[in-house]
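anyone seen this seq b4? input:
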Amino acid sequence: MTIREELCAREHKMLAPRAAFSDQTRGRQREEPECDVRTAYQRDRDRILHSRAFRRLKHKTQVFLSPEGDHYRTRLTHTLEVAQIARTIARALRLNEDLAEAVALGHDLGHTPFGHAGERALRQVYPLGFHHYEQSLRVVDKLEKNGLGLNLTCEVRNGIVRHTVDPPADTLEGQIVRLSDRAAYINHDIDDAIRAGVIREEDIPASVHRTLGESKSARINALVNSCIEASGPDSRRLVALTPEVNASFDLLHSFMFEQVYTNPVCKSEERKAIDMVIWLYQYFSCHADRLPEDFQYIVEEEGPERASIDYIAGMTDRFAVQCFENFFVPKGWGMK
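predicted toks r here
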């Protein structure tokens, strides 16, 4: 037996019957030989981890635009935190950790520069609409490797595109990532907002403190334990939270929306970011020849508007600012 075959056999001995087994994947978009060492989901995880889109996440906004501090989250640190929470839950429920990790690492690959502000800007100008979860799937299906994509398994692709919208992912591992994403971003956004002086820990509703705890770690631990309790062997189809914890989690989300996500202090520069993205889209869609060479095949196949969306969505915050300055900010002139 190869190492991969031994690992697959071990899955059947150790994982719950409702887990997604690596040797029972629905396959890839293109057939390819199996690896002798890694399972299908391990290969997907590695392909995402080594992709260019994954590396760019380190310079993309999570909540605060271009924060001047070493400890604020970026889209990359958020992704790693989601992956760790997802693995913890998957392990406790005897589900496939490798699948959960692969989905978690790929779920935000399509996020724009400047976070959800950039997403709203592209949705506003592109006639076919724009959603980061759809763009994440497009990144792994088409944009990576110059049009070849990463050729991921159906289960990973399904988990990526369903991580934030209904219907939920087909696998329990994909559903775990959806819950882990919410658990990570709300609690870590609280941490960043407290560090920025936007809110204080004591501002959080008392009922949330009583149910979930009075610290970031306590709240994440409460959510993980609640998910494990509510999604045990008797829960065959959906990953969920216990009712009391779910109610407190919804209240916490509402609190964050009112106090942080729509707070003028946090969003003071957002209008500038939105305008910048819109101007870049208008420029590239009218000047497709200025797009990089590896986007010209998209211009030919799907038009300059689609190619512009793909190029801008893949930008980091600082590269978007650099492009804007190059095209729209006059440079000083002087004789040499």
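The chain has a mean pLDDT of 93. The domain at 3-261 is CATH 1.10.3210.10 (Hypothetical protein af1432). kinda curious what u guys think
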